[in-house]
Write a structure and sequence with these properties.
The complex is a heterodimer of chains A (320) and B (342).
Chain A (H helix, E strand, L loop, with lengths): L1 H28 L5 H6 L5 H11 L5 H15 L12 H36 L4 H15 L2 H12 L22 H34 L3 H8 L4 H29 L3 H6 L5 H10 L3 H29 L7
Helix pairs in contact in A: 1-13, 5-6, 5-8, 5-10, 6-8, 7-8, 8-10, 9-10, 10-13, 12-13
Chain B lengths: L7 E12 L2 E13 L4 E5 L6 H9 L7 E9 L2 E2 L5 H7 L4 E4 L3 H4 L6 H10 L6 H14 L5 H4 L9 H13 L5 E5 L7 H18 L2 E6 L2 H5 L4 E6 L2 E7 H6 L4 H8 L50 E3 L2 E6 L5 H16 L1
Parallel strand pairs in B: 3-8, 3-9, 6-7, 7-8
Antiparallel strand pairs in B: 1-2, 1-4, 4-5, 9-10, 10-12, 11-12
Helix pairs in contact in B: 4-5, 4-7, 5-7, 7-8
Classes of the chains: A mainly alpha (320), B alpha/beta (342).
Chain lengths: 320, 342
Amino acid sequence: MARYILRRIGWTVVLLALVSAVTFVIFYALPSADPAVLRAGRQASPELVAQIRARLGLDDPLVVQYWTYMKDVVLHFDFGFSYQSGESVRAAIVSRLPATISMTVGALVIWLATALPIGVISAIRRRSLLDRVTMTGALLAISAPVYWLALVALYLFASDIGVIPIFDGANTYVGITQDPVQWFASLLLPWLVLAAGFSAFYARLLRANLVEVMGEDYIRTARAKGLPERRVVWRHGVRAAITPIVTVLGLDIGVLLGGSILTESVFNIPGVGRYAYDAIRTADLPAIQGTVLFAAFFIVVANLVVDIAYAFLDPRVRYG
Amino acid sequence: MTAAAPLLRVEDLRVHFDTDDGTVRAVDGISYELQRGRVLGIVGESGSGKSVSSLAIMGLVDGERARISGRVEFGGRDLLALDPEAMRAVRGNEIAMIFQDPLSSLHPFHRVGDQLAEAVRAHRDVSRAQARARALELLELVGIPDARRRMDGYAHELSGGMRQRVMIAMALVNEPALLIADEPTTALDVTVQAQILDLVGRLKDELGMAVVIITHDLGIVAETADEIAVMYAGRIVERAPVARIFSAPEHPYTWGLLASIPRLDAPRGEELVPIPGTPPSLLGLPRGCAFAPRCPYAQPRHHEVDPRAEPVPGDPAHVVACLLEPAQRRRLWAALRTPERA
């Protein structure tokens, strides 16, 4: 197991290097605005632009730029400075992580708290009214794009512009340490919007898995033992049905920690996703690189955690 | 038969499934009795209703579209009339069941010892430690080597035979009066099959329980069973003490089953005779005897009239549902077995 983990960590490093190289290449290969021009402001003189180009190292060959960047990342954990603000990218991301973590954890709690009971009940009471209603609703929730859902939610419920103003709307986020009550109030609507699609997806996934598991021979055995049906469902059925879901869950958490770009942008929550969005808009390569690497890092780590967790959840899995 | 009240009396048990294509008569009116300490072998091809009939006794036929009727008297109660909670208290406690594939029948994620202890605690108000002690006792009883260590292992770490031993231990942990074994050896190697059958036979004697063994292989029950019921298309077509089934079978289907068992003492070159055709679809069975389309002795009348299970003249313990005349059946069987004697 230890050897397996070490090997996986080795691959993680290789993968992150590849991700950064690909981001670099895409940034330069695809037409985008010249960062120096954007930085210089309106009607800047060619001399100023050239000066900025030289200072940002944009005239160096691509390989040299990449090398300089990676050297700082590896040796000093330094992701460079934003072309736009001159702010340290590492500091910028770290300062925005609490908002992204708040988004992820809150949404996670909501989507698990709804998806688990819905998935189980609709699997057990298959073809009941409740099953049909929840599964149709889930299909709608999965189909609705999150940015659309977010805008509709704001239009309907935001305290400033909403038809039924019951939730704090966009632009109201404060840190949890500053004002926990306001933190909670401002995130409730984004949580619900972000959780909707996940909740629906997990409910359907759990239902499908559980329906299959309840037809397994070992469920028949559990009933033949005379176990109460509740115990058959939860200890034997759900225990087996939930295991593959843990894999998906780990990856989703990893993806969300990398920043939920759409939700954070619509609600103007200063998280990593919002930062990535701004970076892309302003062709701010160091910031793009930083957010991409962060996101990739979370996904790769989540993957590793999932694989290790799986060995504990499913005793048949052993890594060598 | 005997004066003592039977442990299990199945009377006109029917299990019908309503499907979109019509009614599937999986079990279509079977009756039998089983005394304490006796072994009944139920033999038939796949789809003959032998497993479904036993699942119905256990209250394990699921699906809201299943219709179960008849009587299943067990220890003086009609199991089919019990409410779910009362039936749950019977399952795994007074009647236990083991299944064909022990790997898929054991939970892959729970430790073997926990699965056994759980069965104890479902019916006995004992501590976890007491339940585990009982589980260990049973694992040792069924001959699991190093049972203490196996308690903390998982099903996939065991061999097929060991898994079936675990299933048997789990079934017997509450000392049931009746054990139903549904194809207990089908998924196992031939050498292991004999061990498992020996084990079941030994435990039956030690614990004084009755056993129903369901199998498609007459050879499996030849030595273990006291009585054999041959099922075809949801019905029992012949039922007799085991010796009679092998020495004087009455139903052409039983003859077919006997002819398809390989024998070591058969003359070299003698071929196994398969039964021609396939079992009928249980969806809209043809009129008349269900076996008639495959029966070499069927007469036109047999496709019209439904045979009834009747005792063989002079042998009330031997019941057969065949439209052929008893004398004619005896002549045919005598002719069939002659080449074997030669």
